[in-house]
Design brief:
With about 450 residues, this protein is of the alpha/beta class. About 35% of the residues lie in helices and about 20% in strands. The protein is built from 14 helices and 18 strands. It is globular and about 60 Å long.
């Protein structure tokens, strides 16, 4: 019967890489309890929607996904159920339960360890054998995200994360090491360490270990695995971390350092620090310490009070190519944040306009930087095959899902190959294999 853990689950994940990690942990718990999985929501007994609620647009997308799940034939007919998990129930709690009474259960971030109990309750009394027969395990990806901490203490004026995820807390090393081993045993050739604030790892553990130690220890323990770190706030970029990256061949020479803006007064209003000069000096210092490093950042357009002059300065910074890749977001006015009450709120149209202009400017600078890689030989991890048979993968300069891919003419999925880069198109690259190194 369903209460014993038999049935088919479709796990739908929205949002960032941290949510993907949470979904994978829920998947493991459900699998250990005897559940199987399918990618087709219409073929599942229970659909678990792991929601994102960081900004309003993400909340709206999550609500739409939940509403679509409610309309599935088996749910409408009472042969299936929907469980809403993740950030949205964490942020809205009882209000969400009142608005979505059709959901069988709500599982906020802090309670995701209880996902089996929630699915057990939601599972229909007689799961369909025919439905169970179509369930299949998803192909294991050649890369895996591993979350090293959760929550955040920074209280940036625009951010809802502290309310959704709670106070910052590092995960113990043994737990992280176990997650890394599990990912590698499942076939991952690249492990990407993620968190809201990766650079702070270890600060709350009462030990002398820091993110540099963690990264070095993992890289030394798994020399055949490529490691990458994302979401390092500017004050987390220490010389110890840079030395660790520079001295380990299996740590990607890549740093993602969110700065959000370059105007000092706007950054103060955001409850952040820095200015253009300091960020340019930081980028120069990183490039000096880590040869051939690739740098990514994120910028916010249209924050309350942003003047045309301040926006022009942001455009000029993006055009300078100080960072190789730039993620651009229009400011989202979120209830419960300090910035919600600031004067100088811009219209939605104006915020979107500025974001698009900034995005176009950053894309042009990035396209130029990527084009300079033509004629270089790069190590590529082959990730998969497109429908037309074209192999694709990523170099260490390309983080998963955000920096494009590299198309290659030979090799096996899951292998590293040496590729001569012959052409580029915006973020994507194309080349031919020279010889395989693994």
């Amino acid at each position: 019967m369903a209460g014993n853990g038999r049935g088919v689950v479709c796990l739908c994940t929205l949002g960032c890489a941290k949510n993907e990690v949470d979904s994978e942990k829920m998947r493991r718990r459900l699998s250990a309890a005897g559940y199987t999985f399918c990618d087709d929501a219409a073929a599942a007994d229970v659909v678990v929607v792991n929601t994102c609620s960081f900004i309003q647009a993400a909340t709206e997308e999550s609500i739409q996904a939940v509403l679509e799940a409610f309309e599935l034939p088996q749910v409408v007919e009472g042969r299936g159920a929907v469980v809403v998990a993740g950030c949205m129930p964490a942020r809205y709690g009882a209000e969400l339960e009142r608005e979505l009474p059709e959901a069988a259960a709500f599982v906020p971030c802090a309670d995701e360890s209880r996902i089996v109990e929630a699915v057990d309750r939601a599972m229909p009394a007689a799961p369909c054998e025919q439905v169970r027969a179509v369930a299949a395990a998803a192909d294991a990806p050649v890369f895996s995200y591993v979350k090293i901490s959760d929550g955040c203490d920074r209280r940036c004026a625009y951010c809802t994360i502290p309310d959704i995820r709670g106070a910052y807390h590092s995960f113990p090393f043994d737990d992280i090491a176990a997650d890394v081993r599990a990912a590698i045993e499942a076939g991952a050739r690249e492990v990407v360490l993620v968190a809201q604030d990766t650079g702070r790892w270890g600060a709350d553990l009462g030990e002398r270990h820091d993110i540099a130690w963690l990264l070095a220890t993992l890289a030394d323990a798994h020399p055949e695995t490529l490691f990458r770190i994302m979401y390092v706030q500017p004050d987390g970029v220490t010389d110890r971390l840079l030395e660790t990256i520079a001295t380990h061949e299996n740590i990607a020479s890549y740093l993602d350092v969110p700065i959000q803006h370059v105007d000092a007064s706007l950054l103060r209003a955001m409850r952040r620090g820095g200015d253009r000069q300091r960020f340019e000096q930081l980028a120069d210092h990183i490039r000096t310490q880590v040869p051939n490093v690739t740098l990514r950042t994120t910028l916010i357009a249209g924050f309350p009070g942003e003047t045309e002059a301040q926006f022009d300065e942001l455009l000029d910074f993006a055009a300078s190519g100080c960072f190789d890749y730039v993620g651009v977001f229009p400011y989202s006015r979120e209830e419960g944040t300090e910035a919600f009450h600031l004067e100088g709120q811009l219209s939605e149209d104006e915020k979107e306009r500025r974001a698009q202009v900034l995005r176009d400017t950053a894309d042009a600078a990035s396209a130029h930087a990527v084009s300079q890689r033509c004629g270089h030989v790069e190590r590529v991890l082959i990730e998969g095959v497109e429908e037309d048979g074209q192999l694709f993968g990523r170099t260490q300069q390309q983080a998963p899902e955000v920096d494009g891919v590299t198309y290659v003419d030979a090799g096996d999925v899951g292998s590293f190959v040496k590729v001569m880069i012959e052409d580029t198109l915006l973020y994507d690259m194309e080349g031919s294999v020279r010889h395989e190194s693994s």
